[in-house]
Amino acid sequence: MGSRLSGIFWSLLFLAVPVLGVATFAIAPAIDVWLPKDVSEHGQAIDSLFYFILALTGVVFIATEVALFWFLWKYDAAKNSRPATYIHGSHTLEVVWTIVPAATLLFLAIYQMNTWADVKMRRPVMAPTVEVVARQFEWRLRYPGRDGTLGTGDDLFLVNDLHVPVDEDVLVQLKSMDVLHSFFLPNLRIKQDAVPGMKIPVWFKATETGQFDIVCAELCGWGHYKMKGRITIESREDFDRWLETMYARQEATQPEPEPAEAVAQN
Amino acid sequence: MSLATTSPTLTQPTATGLGRPARKPRPIAEFLSTYVFSKDHKVIGLQFLFSTLVWFLIGGLLALAVRWQIAWPWSDVPVLGKLFAQQGGQMAPEFYTMLFTMHATVMIFLVIIPILAGAFGNFLIPLMIGADDMAFPTLNMLSYWFMWPAFFAFGASFFVEGGAASSGWTSYPTLSTNVASSPGAGWGQTLWLIGLTMVGVSSMLGSVNYMTTIILMRAPGMTMFRLPMTIWAMFITAILQAFALPVLTAAGFMQLADRTLGTGFFSPEGNIVNNAMQATGGGQPLLWQHLFWFYSHPAVYIMILPAMGMVSDIMTTFARKPLFGYRPMVYSIAGIAGLGFIVWGHHMFISGMNPALGITFMVSTMMIALPSAVKTFNWLGTVWGGKIQFTTAMLFALSFVSMFIIGGLSGIFMAATPVDIFIHDTYFIVAHFHYVLFAGTAMGVWAGIYYWFPKMFGRTMNEFWGKAHFFLTFVFMNGTFFTMHILGAVGFPRRLADAYHYETFHHLQPLNAFMTWCAIGMVASQIIFAVNFFWSMFFGPVAGRNPWNANTLEWTAPSPPGHGNFDFQPVVYRGPYEYSVPGMEKDHLMQTDPPNAAALAAAGAAH
Question: Is A75–B367 a contact, with Cβ atoms under 8 angstroms apart?
Answer without folding.
Answer: no
